[in-house]
Amino acid sequence: MIRKTTLTATAAAAALAFGLTACGGGAGDSAENTEETPTTGESESGANTDGGEATTETAGENFGSGCAEVPADGEGSFQGMADDPVATAASNNPVLSTLVTAVQEADLVDTLNSAEDVTVFAPADPAFAEIPEEDLNALLADQEQLTEVLTYHVVEGRQTPSDLENGTFTSLQGGEVTTEGSGEEFTVNGEAGVICGNVQTANATVYIIDGVLMPS
């Protein structure tokens, strides 16, 4: 069930500080602020938007059963997503349509597209379907609470699969997100599983998960 919460001054300050650190000049030039940022889910094709090369450790391979649901080609494919900043990349992927709607309702598109080097734990559509419709609609209509929930899914830095083995990360919302696992099996906050990992966009590494994270 969705429990209405109010952003505390501390969380708001933390989010503001993170945003000022992470954000570049704006959504319009985000694709140009990706120097040495990997833009492909495959280690063999490490080119980014300004001609640099991604490291093998960061680019790596996509993994997880949910990767089969990602389009094989086009803008919503792994290669297509690698060319765009994260909010734009997600909007082209049919697996993430509800998340994209939520990001638009919270007016976070520019914030996410202009962030530099972040990791997004992106709930797939079935994750939102687990929330009762009435509660989901209430969440989407409450911009303050929706912003708190969505920014909790974004953490500092491009986290590699090895970083997720026993990780604790600070979210844009201000709270901590923990991960654990190994190989191709990872959980976030001990509840949501990674179903498609190490997806690269122009400014973020994305792990598609099967649950919606709720900040305490």
UniProtKB/TrEMBL annotation:
Organism placement in taxonomy: Bacteria, Bacillati, Actinomycetota, Actinomycetes, Streptosporangiales
Ranges where the record places region Disordered: 27-86
Location of the FAS1 domain: 83-213
Biased composition annotated in UniProt, kind: Low complexity: 36-62
The protein's name: Fasciclin
Gene Ontology terms: cellular component: extracellular matrix; extracellular space
GO molecular function: cell adhesion molecule binding
Keywords: Signal
GO biological process: cell adhesion; extracellular matrix organization
InterPro entries: Adhesion/Biosynth-related (IPR050904), FAS1_dom_sf (IPR036378), FAS1_domain (IPR000782)
Signal sequence extent: 1-27
Coiled coil spans: none
The keyword Signal is assigned to this record: yes
Pfam family, one: Fasciclin
Keyword Signal among record annotations: yes
Gene3D superfamilies, A to Z: FAS1 domain (2.30.180.10)
Organism for this UniProt entry: Nocardiopsis sinuspersici
